[in-house]
Batch of 2 targets.
Target 1
Amino acid sequence: MVDFYDELAYETNPFPETHPGNLATLGRLFGIPTAAPQQCRVLELGSATGGNLIPMAWHLPHSEFVGVELSAAQVAIGQRIVAPLPLHNIRLEVGDILELDPAALGQFDYIIAHGVYSWVPPVVREKILAVTRECLTPHGLAYISYNLLPGWRMRGSLRDLLLHATRDVTGAAAKYHAAIAALERLQHALVGAEADSQRYVQKEITYLLGSHPSYLLHEYLAGENNAFLFSEFLDDVQRHELQYVCETDLHTLFDTTLSGAAQAALGDIEDPSQHEQWMDFVRMRAFRKSVLCRADVTLERAVDVDVFTEFFYSADLRLKGKANLSNTKPVAFLTPDNTELTVTHPLSKAALLYLQEVHPYTPDFTELYTHAAERVREAGGKQFANARNELVSEWFSLYSYRAVYGHLHPCLLKPEWSERPEASVLARLQAAEGWQSVASIRHQALSLDDFSSELLQALDGTRTVSELIQLAQTSGKGSEKEIAANVKHLLNVFARHGLLI
Ligand SMILES: C[S@@+](CC[C@H](N)C(=O)[O-])C[C@H]1O[C@@H](n2cnc3c(N)ncnc32)[C@H](O)[C@@H]1O
C-alpha cells in the first residue's frame, strides 16, 4: 500500500499540546526541572510542512528547532515559508527516521512525534523510541501521540470499509473521491437505522465528510495505521529506558472524571499503570498524547500545588450570559470552538473574566487571585473572597482540561492595535501562501477564510484602519457598515491572538 504525503500535503497545524511551553509546565508539576522554552532545543519527527514547528521558532527566537520529514514535497512547502523570513533557528530537513544518527543530531530538551507513531511500521516505531532515548537531555521530555485500543477498533470499522471501497483505485485524488462516494452510500443506507453501532457509524461518517481530505487519506487510507493498548505502549517505552510521565490531557489521569460506579469498580487496582489501562477500557479511549522522560529521572507522582501556583496564566474563553460574583451559581464560559465550561466559585468566575479582558497578557497566580478577590468583594461576595485554596482547586481542574493555560514565563502583550496595524511577517506570509490557518501566540490554529486572509496580508503597517476598511470594501460581501464592522472585529481577533506587533 502507498501513502500520499507527496501527492497531498498533510494539513499540519500548530498543536498547542506539543509546544515546549506546555510540556515545560507539565514536567514541572511532576518535579522535573524542565528547560525554559525560551532557551531550548526541539526536535520534531515527521514534521510534514512545518506548520507546527515554524511558529514555535518564530515566537521563541533563542531556541533551536529541527524537523525531520520523509516527504520532500512537504518539506519544500515549509522551506518556502522559512526562506524569506529572518529565521535562523529552524532546520526543516528531508530525512528518514530510520536513517537518523542520534550522535549527529545532538541532544534535545523536547522531542515531538505527533501523528507519526501509529502510522509507521514497527521498525520505525522502535527507531522513534531509540532516538528519543538517545537524544533527550537528562531532564528532557518527549511527546508521542498514537491510536489506542480498544477505542480505535470502532473507528477501524470505517477504515475497513474505505480500504475495501478504494482497493482498485490509484492516485490520491481518485482514492479520495471513491472514499467519499462510499461514505455517502453508507450514509444513505443508514437513514433511520436504530442500532447503537449504526448510530455510531452515522456520527463518524458526518465527521469524516466534513474533514479535510488530507485527514481522510492519511488516517483512514494510509498504508500503516496501528493501534495499541496503553500497556503495550508502556512495555515498549520501558524497553527503551524511557518512562511515562503523564498525558497532555491531564484530566484523564484522574479517576474522579469517571462515574462513581467506575471509580468503585476500579478502586482496588493498586498498580497505577494498570489503573490507567482500565480507565481506557472504561472510556473506550481511541487516542493518547503521552509525555515521556528518561527512565533515570525521579518523578514526583503527586502533583505539586506550590509549583502550580507559580505559573503565569492565560485563557481564551468568553462568558456566556451573565456572571454573578456573589454566589456559587454555575456560569458557562465558551472556548473558541464553542465548548461550554462550567465554573461555580466566584473567584474562578472573576479570574476567568479578568483573563478574558486581558488576553493574551498573562498574570501570575498571585495577580490573578488578588484581582479576582477584589472583584468578588466589590460584587458583594465578601465571604468568598479569601477562599484562595478553593480557587487553586477549581483552577487546577480548568488547567487539567486545558481550559486555562499555564506558562513558566509571562507574556506582556495587551490586546491592542495601533493606528496603522501591522501583523507579524510570518502570519502575512502564511496567508499569502494560501495556508488555511495561522498560529496564535498561544500556538493555537486560527482558521482563515478568504476575507480574513486578505485583511491579514494587508496589515503591513502602512495603512490606517479607515484605509483597510476602504480596501476591504472592494472585495468584501455585505453592506459598507457590515464590512467595516467585520474589519474591526477581525483586528480585535488578530490582536487577541498576538498576531499584531
Ligand atoms: C500523519 S502525518 C503527521 C504530520 C504531522 N506531524 C501532523 O501531525 O500534522 C505523518 C508524517 O510522518 C512522515 N513520516 C512517515 N514515515 C516517516 C519516516 N520514516 N521518516 C520521516 N518521516 C516520516 C510522513 O511523511 C508524514 O508527514
Note: The pocket of S-adenosylmethionine is lined by residues 5, 10, 12, 46, 48, 68-71, 74, 96-98, 114-116, 119-120, 124, 218 (CB under 6 Å).
Target 2
Amino acid sequence: MQILADYHTHTIYSHGKGTIEENVKVAMSKGIKKIGISDHGYRHMTYGVKLKDIQKMREEIDKLNQKYPNIDILLGMECNILDKNGNIDINENIIHFFDYVMAGYHFGSAPTSLKSMMNHFNNYIIKNEKAKEYNTQGIINAMRNNDIFIITHPGDKGDVYIEEIAKVAKETNTRLEINSSHGYLNVEQLKKIKHLGNTFIIGSDAHIPNNVGNFDKAMKTIKEAKLDLLFVENIRV
Ligand SMILES: [Zn+2]
Ligand SMILES: [Zn+2]
C-alpha cells in the first residue's frame, strides 16, 4: 500500500510533540508524497493554535517546501465544530493562510452559547438523543456553510446519525475521515454508509512525528467493515 497523503498531523503549535520539519522528515522516510500540518483551531481552550503563530507556520512551510522538493507540504487546520449552526473557528483574516480546512467536534472548544455549553455537558455525561441530534445538525450545517475538505473523526466524543451526515457530505463534496488514532469512523458506522458513494480519507492524527502515516488502526477498521478501498482517496493499493 502506498500512502499518497496524510492530511491530519499535529505539531508543537497545538499539542503535538514534534516540529513541522520533524513530521515532514518522518513522512519522507515512509515515502509519503504529501503531508498536511493540521493543528487545532484557535477556539480550542487548551490546544488551539495561537492566532499570532499562523503566519509563522505558513512561512515555515513555504521554506520547507523549498528545502524538500520531493514532498508537498500543506498547511491545514483542524477547526472545531462549535455549535448546532455549524460555526467553525476560521475567519476571513486567517483563511488565506491555509491550503485546506478540516473540522471536527472536540470537548475543549469554547462555547458560543449556553446551548453549545450544555451540549458539551450532554455529550460528556448524559450522552442522550438530544445531544446526538445537536451533534448531527452541527456537522451538517458546518459542511453546508463552509468549504470543508474533511470532517475529522465523525462521532468521536459525541454520537451522530452517520447516514444523515454521509448524505450531506456527498452533496457538498466533503470527505469523511477514518481516523487512525480515535477509531472513528468505526466498523459499525462504515457498514451503515459504505454503499452511499462517499469519499473517505484516512488520517493518522499523529501527535508524535513517528506516528505520521500510521494507518494501521484505520486499515483494520476498513477491512472489518469490508469497505472497498477505491473509496479511500489517499491510499493506493
Ligand atoms: Zn480531533
Ligand atoms: Zn487531530
Note: The chain has a mean pLDDT of 97.
